[in-house]
Amino acid sequence: MLISGASIAGTTLAYWLRRHGLTPTVVERAPAIRDGGYKVDIRGAALDVADRMGVLPSIRARRTDVRGGSIVTATGRQVAAMDGDTFGGRHGGDAEILRGDLNRLLYDLTKDDVEYLFDDSIAALVQRGDGVQVTFESGAVRDFDVVVGADGLHSHTRALAFGPESSFVHDLGYYVSIFSVPNHLGLDRWELTYVAPGRTALTYSTAGDGGAKAMFLFASPPLAYGHRDRARQEALLAEAYAGEGWEVPRLLAGAAQAGDFYFDSLSQVRMDSWSRGRVALVGDAAYCASPASGQGTSLALVGAYVLAGELAAAGDLRAGLAAYEREMRPFAEANQKLGPANIKRMVLRTRGQVRTSLAMLSLINRLPGGKRLMAKAIEPIRRAANAITLKTYE
C-alpha cells in the first residue's frame, strides 16, 4: 500500500497498517519530516488513539505548557486574561503540542519498519483491476494494491483520482497565516491576541522554544495567488493588515525571515465518497475541517486508526473502505460543524462586535458563574471530539 504524505494522518496510518501486518510505503514531497510548526490540540477519541499507540506519555512530556492568554487593544492594554486551557478551549486531559513535535514522534515509531520515500511525489496513477500503477516525479514506476492520499487540503492524490480541487474544497471566507518570529515581547508560555474588525492577530511562546509564533486570521473574498508563491502571499498578508496597531507591524516584518511561513485559505473538504476504486483519502485530504475547528489533528489520528482497522478487519478492500466511511463520516461531519461557528468568534466583523466582545471578556472573570459560561462555550468542541466510539481492531 502506498501512502501519499508523511504528516500526521500519513504516519499514523503507516503505524497502524504495519501493526495489522500490512506493508505500507510512504512518499513525501518534502526532503524530511517537518519539525516545529504551530500548536495543535489532541482531544477526545484522538487521545485514545495516541494512548493505544503508546505515545501519549511522550506527547504530554512535549506539551506546549502555555499558561494562559490575554486580549489586548491597539495600544497594548490588556482587557482580559484566561488560563491556558480556557483560552485554548481544552477540557480534562486534552493535550497541546507543536505539530512538528507530534509528527516527529509518529515518524520515530515507524521509521525502522516502514519504507519512506522523501523528496518525491506521485506524478500519475493508473488503476487496474488488481492494483494501481504509480509513476513518481522521480521517474520511478511501481505497482501497489492500494493508494491512500494523506496529502492535505490541496491533495494531489485527490486531484488525480477524483477530479479538480474546486469540486471539493469550500472556502469559508477567511485566510490564515502563521510563522516563527523573534520573541521580542519576552513571552513566557503566554499568548497575546489583538482583535480588530475583520482582523485578528496573535503571538505566543511555548515551552522549550526561545522564539515565538505569530498568527493572523482575516476575513476576505477569494484572493488570487499561487500556493507556492510566497512573495505574493506575504504581500497579501501585509495589505490585509495595513494600518493596524499594537505589535502587528513588527510581527508582519518577521515574515520575510521565517523559514516556516504558511499562508492559506480557511477551507473545508466535503466529499460524497472518500474512495474511488483502489484510491482512498484520509485526514484533511478527505474531510478537512479547517484550522478554525481546532480538530484537524484529532481527525487525522482517528481517521487513520479507523481506516487501517477497517481494512484489516474486513480482509476485502471494498468492504473495508465502506466500513471506514460508515464509522468516520458522522465524526467528521460533527467536527466540520465547528469550523464556521468558531471562526465567527475568532474574527469579528464590525467595530460594534469588537467592542461588545472585549467588554464581555473583561467582565467574565469577575462575574458569578463566569467559569461556567466559559465551560459552556467550549462544550461543542468536547462533544465533537468524542463523537465516535472507537472499535478495538486487535
From TrEMBL:
Protein name: FAD-dependent oxidoreductase
Single annotated GO MF: FAD binding
TM spans (from-to): none
Organism: Acrocarpospora macrocephala
Signal peptide interval: none
Entry-linked Pfam families: FAD_binding_3
SUPFAM superfamilies per record: FAD/NAD(P)-binding domain (SSF51905)
Limits of the FAD-binding domain: 2-159, 268-335
